[in-house]
Amino acid sequence: MILIADSGSTKTDWRILDESKVVGQTQTVGFNPYYQDANSIANELTINLLPLCKNKINQVFYYGTGVTNDEKAGVIKEAILKVFPTCSKIEAFSDVVGAARAACGREAGIVCILGTGSNSIYFDGEKTGFQVPPLGFWLGDEGSGGHLGKSLILSYLHKEMPLEIRAKFEEKYGVMDRLTVLENAYHKPFPNRYFASFSRFLFDNLDNVFCYDLVKKCFFEFFEKYILKYPMCHNVSINFVGSVAFYYKDLLAEVAYSQGISIGLVLEAPIGGLVKYHLN
User: Fold this and answer.
1) What pLDDT score was predicted for residue 52?
2) Of the candidates 276, 277, 256, 278, which has an alpha carbon nearest to the alpha carbon of residue 266?
3) Of 216, 234, 260, which one is at a domain's C-terminal end?
């Protein structure tokens, strides 16, 4: 049996495959080896994944955020081996490799992730190649849910929101206290999840000019800092994976068009494409 995982900062999709089809699936919290060790990840998997795996798991293909080098991949592999000690093959890849395989299959293209975080890479159909490297939540993640939410919160704290949007915001979240925001930003785990949770407010109020322009500005930053630096960006399709890309796809396409960029697939999640990739 083969186990496939697609893990973002917020959630992880799991699929169990036999030789020809999906025989099981579930969802757990997201994992990030920058913030979690092997034991904490293994504990979560033991409780919420292992009971679903009735047959022996022989291979695991894990694609996830934070898997940026061999050390971080090792954290994931160690955690999985603790849960499935007889597994003969465990591979851990960056989430952007998963996005590339899901969206491009075995064709060339640029693949972008716009979910809780953001990322991009060129995929030649077999392996990932040229990349404008991401810088993580505090130094980058432009265009992501975390970036959208952080931009919204900053506009609130800086008193830049129009009064009608501020009233809607406080009706939904209460009066936002600066110290509460700082506590979540600097002292609690997963600040990107915290800020990304506010991006839904922007989507629900996208008909408001302020919210529309804020999202559009974030997407422009993503294209300017990343996509337009790819030498081949005007010659290949640009594919997107992630909830932010999926739900804001019309606005994303508008920004792309203004930059002379052609958008290919926009997938809410890569897990379906990864299943197809590993079954073929």
Assistant:
1) 85
2) 256
3) 216
For residue 211, the enclosing domain spans 138-216
Nearest C-alpha neighbor of 94 from the set 168, 8, 16: 8
What's residue 127's pLDDT?
84
pTM for the predicted model, two decimal places: 0.78
Distance CA 196, CA 187 (A): 17
Per-residue model confidence (pLDDT) at position 53:
85
Residue 136, number of CB atoms within 10 A of its CB: 17
84 and 148 share one domain = no
Split into its structural domains, the chain has a count of 2
Range picked from 8-22, 113-127, 179-193, 208-222 for highest mean pLDDT: 208-222
Q: Convert 32-51 to b/e letters by CB count within 10 Å (16 or more is b).
A: bbeebebeebbebbeeebee
Is the pLDDT reported for residue 105 higher than 90? no
- Write the single-letter amino acid at 203: F
Taking each continuous run of H as one helix and of E as one strand, the counts in the chain are 13, 9
Q: CATH code at 79? A: 3.30.420.40
List the one residue out of 219, 225, 201, 189 whose CA is nearest residue 153. 201
